[in-house]
Fold this sequence. Notes:
2 domains; four-stranded mixed beta sheet; 35% helix; Alpha/beta knot; six-stranded parallel beta sheet
Amino acid sequence: MRVKELSICGLGAVRSRFETAPLTIKRLFFTQEMAPQIGDICHALAEARHAYRCVEEEDLERISGSVHHGGIVAVVERAPFKPPQLEQVREWASAGETLLILDCIGNPHNLGAIVRTAAFFGVSKLVLADHPLAAVPTDATYRVAAGGLEHMEVFVVTYMNLFLHDIRAFYEVIGAATDGGDPRLGSTSRKPVAIVLGNEEEGLANEVAAECDRLVTIPGCGRVESLNVAAAAAVLLWECARSKVSK
């Protein structure tokens, strides 16, 4: 069962949530040292009759489930994730927006790192697989994303191959392959790019890879088999951003 609440840790991430969706913060906990920096947040929560409290470090560890809480934890509502409508995708493509698609990324920390990178490069649309093995944003994801999820719209699709088949009318769909793919990482089309990354261990599912316009492989020296999926996402998103600037 998917949890309905999440803990967001760290001042940057909490402030990002406050600036984008303040009323989704249901409870706020912070240390005495953090209090002078969040007066505006506490004032807004008081007006909304939402709870906030100064607590000890060990309380924050218990609430967040981590020692990496940064002195502040916001307990927030988890927004429901829905599938994107084809007309929405058409509008994203018309606006030239890059689309990031993750096919069963299983580690919530990897998901957070990818989201942080995507937000850095201005990517704001993320599509995840609606699958038991696919990670969805958790407390750990929010912590690693360092506020990036507050700038991201997250969608889920049940049949990833069918979704890719449909969006190829609007996007050049580029799948990341461990080997055998095109070493030219940037776009080769006038369409905007949809980047597809697969599971950490298995890569792209065969039926998903078959629906990509092309597969790309990041060339390396061969000393290790492949990059971590979050590092691969960073390389591909940078190449995509660079291609957009050069057009």
